[in-house]
Specification:
Blueprint lengths: L1 H9 L13 E4 L5 H12 L3 E4 L4 H13 L3 E4 L7 H14 L6 E4 L14 H21 L1 H4 L8 E7 H5 L5 H25 L2 E7 L15 E3 L5 E3 L4 H9 L13 H12 L10 E4 L6
Parallel strand pairs: 1-2, 1-4, 2-3, 4-5, 5-6, 6-9
Antiparallel strand pairs: 7-8
Keywords: NADP
InterPro entries: KR_dom, NAD(P)-bd_dom_sf, Sc_DH/Rdtase_CS, SDR, SDR_fam
Pfam family, one: adh_short
Length: 289
């Protein structure tokens, strides 16, 4: 298999049909932000993209834009807290991919912050549910499409955060969940790498400009499975403090863009990273390096 893979890579150095030509990718939380950008970039590189998001309208919009620009995409909207939906997502993705799935990007998620002595069980369970349990269920459901020996590349990319690597005050739930993602990736790389050649890596993002890092006063929210609205973002006073400091703790002196974050996902999914496995790749502009 190794010789076949090496020949496959060396024989397509120019990638005339794209880095991900012929591959089918599920990208969760791809109705907006980093996920939407990743969907667009994957499609530009020849992948058939399954756009997953809880917001059906946003998922359909991303898929429509990809298709109108010559790519291939389908929207399969639903709630990643719903185990039955995850099974259906995999089934429909495999049908879309003519019986194959090559890439999973576990990107869906949100934050629900509080200092630990004020954090509720609901906050704790929701954040671990979306960032840890949902990726586990998705990968488990997709196992029959990854535990194969057809010579085609397979990879899983789990999105984490510097909060899961270094911790962050007010985010014990998020830090716990994202730290768990690293262990999950490393264990899975050891399970599915030897026999099936599946690569599993984690990308830990630093300060990326998304709705999770925008001003909380902008009013972005997400609704939990039980109907509660959760405010997203960083309080403006704290955000202004970062601006006043000129992002002094980031060597590049600026936050990253969603496109830059998505580009790192594309890089890890691509054959250019064919020998990178079980790693946590920090995309932080140099923060905490």
């Amino acid at each position: 298999m190794a010789a076949q893979r090496a020949q496959q890579i060396s024989g397509h150095l120019n990638y005339p049909k794209g880095l991900l030509a012929g591959q089918v990718a599920i990208i969760t939380g791809s109705g907006q932000g980093i996920g939407a950008e990743a969907a667009r970039l994957f499609a530009n590189e020849g992948a058939s993209v399954v756009v997953q998001d809880i917001d059906a309208g946003k998922a359909q919009s991303v898929a429509k834009a990809i298709n109108e620009n010559g790519g291939r995409a389908i929207a399969i909207a639903g709630d990643m807290f719903d185990a039955k939906y995850i099974e259906e997502l995999v089934k429909k993705a495999a049908e879309f991919g003519n019986g194959k799935i090559h890439i999973i990007v576990n990107n869906a998620g949100f934050t629900w912050d509080a200092v630990i002595h004020k954090m509720t069980d609901k906050q704790w369970d929701a954040i671990l549910g979306i960032h840890s349990t949902a990726p586990f269920r998705l990968v488990r459901a997709a196992a029959p499409y990854f535990r194969v020996k057809d010579g085609e590349p397979r990879c899983i990319i789990n999105i984490s955060s510097t909060s899961g690597v270094n911790g962050n005050a007010g985010q014990t739930n998020y830090a716990m969940a994202k730290a768990g993602v690293t262990g999950f990736s490393k264990a899975l790389a050891k399970e599915w790498g030897p026999q099936f050649g599946v690569r599993v890596n984690t990308i830990a993002f630093g300060f990326i400009q998304t709705r999770l890092t925008a001003a909380k006063e902008d009013g972005a929210t997400i609704t939990t499975p039980d109907g509660q609205k959760v405010a997203l973002g960083i309080p403006q006073k704290q955000g202004d403090a970062n601006k006043d400091a000129g992002y002094a703790d980031i060597p590049l002196r600026r936050p990253g863009t969603a496109t830059e974050a998505a580009s790192s996902i594309l890089a890890v999914a691509s054959p250019l990273f064919s020998y990178v496995n079980g790693q946590t790749i920090m995309v932080t502009g140099g923060r905490n390096a």
